[in-house]
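To whoever is covering the structure queue this week,

Two jobs came back overnight. Logging them here so there's a record in the thread.

Job A:
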Amino acid sequence: MSVRQVQNWTSEPRLTYLSRAQERRVKIRELRATGMSMRAVAAEIGCSVGTVHNALKDTDQPPPSEQSGHVQERVHGRPRTCP
């Protein structure tokens, strides 16, 4: 039996994981909106402070197409904003 076969048997379906992750992000935003600190939110949810930070950061930024009109191009595989 291969490692990949065991992973396929034990992993949850992707859609299940994505919906659970989205619910966690919503809960993080709700708790933060009540005035809880990032550490308190992390303790309540059962995740790291970095996860809380990333969930809040992802919701604060508009999609790249809505940002200040700059054209994005890729330089060495990374996005770069040009004036």
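Job B:
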Amino acid sequence: MDPIRVLVPNAREGPGINVCRALRLADQPYYIIGAEAVPYRFWNAEADEMHPLVPGTDPRFIPQLKALAIETRADVVYASDTNDELLKLSKHRGEIIATGARVLMRYGYVRIGRS
């Protein structure tokens, strides 16, 4: 069985580390593609590969995330962050899906939960 390729923004922050560790414990094989705004954090990441990505507050976040999803052939994009990245990713869900990757949340649910 081929591993599912999961793109995890903020893979080196607490929630991202937890996602990576949880995927490692699963019976299904996963290939973890980490992204992080702080390059010095790459050295001890728990992803199979790491890529630079601007923070979710940066207007270039979605364009860079889409390009990274295409470049890495991600099957799923999972926002481990519960703030700006999650809100932006859910709001631009259709654009991410157009890259061929799945997104596991919908904007209405995230927006309502945050208000």
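Note for Job B: The chain has a mean pLDDT of 85.

Please reply-all if you pick these up so we don't duplicate work.
Q.
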